[in-house]
Amino acid sequence: MNVTAEQVIFLAFAVPLVAAAIGVVVARSPMYAAMSLVGAFFCLAGVYVLLTAHLIAFLQILVYAGAVMVLFLFVIMLLSLGGEGQQLDRLKQLQWLGFVLGGGGLMALLAWISREVAGAEMAAVGPDFGTIKAVGRALFTTYLLPFEATSLLLTVAIVGAVVVAKEKI
Amino acid sequence: MKRFFGMSLTLALLVGFLVLLSAGFYWAAAGLGWGFNALSISFGWNPPGTVSTAAVSYGAAVGNLLTLMMVVLMISGSMLTVAERKWSALLQNRIGANRITVGGNPLGGIPYLLADALKMLTKEAAAPDVRNRLLFELAPVLAFAPVFCLFAIVPVGPAVDLGNFFGVAAAGKSVSLQVAQIDAGLLYLFAIASLSVYGTSLAGWASNNKLALLGGVRAASQMISYEVSMGVSLVGTMMAYRTLRLEEMVVAQGAPVLGGFPALGLLLQPIGFLIFFTSGFAETKRAPFDLPEGESEIVGYFIEYSGMKFGMMFLAEFLEIAVFAGVITAIFLGGWHPLVFEETLRQNLQPIWFAAVCGGAFLVKMILLMWLQLVIRWLLPRFRYDQVQKLCWKILLPASLVNVFVTGAAILIDPSLQLLAWIGLGTIIVIGVLVGASGRQAAATDGHAAHGAAHAGGH
Q: What pTM was estimated for this model as a whole?
């Protein structure tokens, strides 16, 4: 069997990725769940690098692993969560629902992949693909309207957060 | 007079040593690049007689990993532990670490490295029973690893054609003193730097100690805040040099602007430099931003750590100083450009030796910046916590946003960067005048003490 370096690197990131993703769901302590999610984000960034999407990979680490999850951690650290696991019984039905929906989604995805993608060679990408210049050009020409709409949405969210948090401005 | 000559000689020897060192680094990188190429040919991956770009760049990257990160970064980090003691002593007008002597000679305090290592490795590993075991052990690793990885994108030396090392057969491929040339350069820097907050905050939480938790929470909020202004402060330089790659930024800084003066980041972006320096300093969590540690109130997020686990966090802080100095050198101080006699050197020296001189220039600038950080750390008192947050959100962040708009407008009006350079020069003059005026005022109210200090310094 001919193993390429690409496959080795893919497995080096993909196996911990799946393990960390399972850890997010299974872990009883919210701290472990949050740290597993950080690990999953990091490994996913590695897979992005393998797909020559460097910009997305580093933004993934910067935004999700470096900023969003730190805030999650901050909240978990400040709330002393002693009695986790006690409410699990109440959520049993929800857990089953989640299991069925998640499993069904996974099956559907696998079926689609095996029908459409399996065995097909991925098309080679150009030397520009995934660079900052290429992504920036696409973002500010083809996708300018969604980009500006998103920034407007974020501004609204920030203003809303300030209004909610401060009673008197 | 004798002392002056002695110091000049020492400094000249140091510069010469750094140049020789970077020449050695070039040979290591080129040798490994050539060796990897030979290996790939012997395995039959490449036809004989060819030079593969991939093999050469991987080999050079491994060589640079060994020389730059293992040698330059680690030795800078560990020497800083000694330098901090010596400089704090000089600033406080006392004799520094000199109790460990080898044959009666303290050797500038360097034996303290060995003593520190021995002490940390042999100390009893005491840990609280109520800790969270996994995260407690993981935290020092998470504090150390990201900081160490950051140095991978710092360009220490220019690219040199491989043909200069191994004859014309190898021409066309180049090696440089940089581990990784990443398209997203600065984003890598921000992304990996943002991960280092986990080490400190997890250490605080997993220790299960109120003081440690306070330190961890303070560290997390401080680092998140300053990451914002740090990121925005560099947008101006990204726009001015039109790249995120550090190596291209350094090359762009060699271009003349304002009548032959090189377009240094410091000249084009003085405000960006000040904000980046302050924010980066806050990220290293050292005085005046050392609230996560704050020895006099909470001992810090590492209060429960002992031995080498504490040593890892401590060393990570010093590595951060070294990395930060390297990044500032590359972005704002012209990187490896020697700045003086550059053309003469380029024309009269062989390419390898010119590159070695450039590498030496980079290391000299890096050492100067590390020294500057030590001086600031020992000169300024600690900020209050609300002052730290106010400085970030009310001063640095708005200033960096204004800087982005001004820079963008100046580049839009005049793409040749002349206008931006004039604005930068004006800003530097204004800042200089303001600092000079306020400094004199402070000296007038406090003249006696200043005079006394100057008098004491004279002896």
A: 0.89
